[in-house]
Amino acid sequence: MSHHLFLLSPSDTPLYSLTHYSTKPIPSTGSALTSNLPSWSTSAFAGTLTALSGASSATQSHHVQGGAARMGGGQDRHVIQMIANASLDVVEDVMRKDGAMYLKSVDKFNEWMVSAFITPGNMKFVLLHEAKNDDGIKSFFNEVWELYVKTMLNPFHTAHTSIRSPVFDARVRTSAKKYL
Amino acid sequence: MAQQPHPRFSVMSTSSLSSADALSPATSTTRFSLPSVNTASTSTRHAGPRPNIFDRSLNKTRTTEVSTSAFAFLFSEVVQYTQKRVSGINDLERRLNTLGYRIGTRVLELMAWRAESGSKAPKREIRFLPALMSIHTQVWKAVFGKPADAIEKSVSNEDEYMIIDNEPAIERYISVPRDMSQLSCSSFTAGIVEAVLDGLGFPARVTAHNTPVQGHPARTTILIKLEKSVLEREEVFKT
């Protein structure tokens, strides 16, 4: 089961992204769509199509540890980015009316659920996930927020530029392991 | 002076300790007549690995304060430095505003984190008036240690609001020469306010003006001119 985290600036520029593979088991969701796909779908567009149709074939393949066919790690990355980007419209609609920072499951796309966290300074944290895990995700977002505030306070960090601190990266990975 | 700090300003920065570290080489020079107290302890402190900013608690400096004299000295250098690089008063005010803006973005995030991170469902400010109120009280308290003195709404223009400070702390030791009487060093504060409003999604142009009255010669008005989009957004809430 994979999670994809994106940190976006107020102008929707991605500043940081992380793909996390959880060791927790995947809920078995069979998809009838894959079998219905025409045979040509195994060609160049295969990755995109299976991902867009919510196919389980790709989801199963990342059991193979270290395999190149991991979802989101290789050629399907652009699909993940597209889903995250598409969810921004919904996120922006909701955040205008809702004062909560944590917006749980604001958007859904096939097997992907999109949760978001809006900081007071209008930074958006967007997380793509496959299973419901509200409390875990909330705690995860809270830790990422704290780490982000610490990054912001660094006088050598310019606001709304990409976050390249290795320590930040390591910390986010640790809390992803802990909560997701 | 350094031994008896005036506890008037609180600090929004978490780097008060590490900045002391960074400045410590100055203690050994003779240019500043600082007491050479911890030359021994600084050398031992540098021996270990550098502390990481991600290891520090964000609440560590919640109640710490910085001395007014130290800040006045720093701010006077800031103004002088800026003044050497500009051609006019407008330019100088704009530069001070930019410097304040950098502080404001940080103040906003840190202040909100301190207030909300403990709560179960952290909230953001989405209406303008509560946001303005929280700038008047929370931001002012966090930065200057006391709330501002008043909020006013312009009668003639509905997109203009004013925050009034009778005795701005950053101008306490500044006397502006007569030929520059237009200048208000509170442009720095205006920058902070602008950043906070921007961050909350209320883009505005914020300027500072001297408005002395009887008894308060340093009274300063922070004028907020909201962008059209903010008013439109507020209209949506009314219906």
Number of helices, counting only DSSP H or I runs of 4 residues or more of chain B: 8
> Between the first and last Cα atoms of chain A, what is the distance in angstroms?
9 Å
Assigned CATH architecture of chain A:
2-Layer Sandwich
Strands across the major sheet of chain B, in which order? 3-4-6-5
Provide the low-confidence segments of chain A as ranges: 28-43, 55-75
- Strands across the major sheet of chain A, in which order? 2-1-5-4-3
Q: What is the share of helical residues of chain B?
A: 40-55%
Please state the overall shape of chain B, judged from the principal axes of the Cα atoms: globular
Spans of chain B of at least 5 consecutive residues whose pLDDT stays below 50 are: 1-5, 13-32, 39-44
The name of the CATH superfamily of chain B reads: Trafficking protein particle complex subunit 3
Reading off the top of the CATH hierarchy, the class of chain B is best stated as Alpha Beta
The number of distinct β-strands of chain B equals 6
Number of strands of chain A: 5
Helical fraction of chain A: 40-55%
Strand percentage of chain A lies at: 15-25%
Gyration radius from CA atoms of chain A, angstroms: 17 Å
| Quaternary structure type | heterodimer
Family (chain B): Belongs to the TRAPP small subunits family. BET3 subfamily.
GO cellular component, one term (chain B): TRAPPII protein complex
InterPro entries (chain B): NO_sig/Golgi_transp_ligand-bd, TRAPP-I_su5, TRAPP_component
Subunit structure (chain B): Part of the multisubunit TRAPP (transport protein particle) complex.
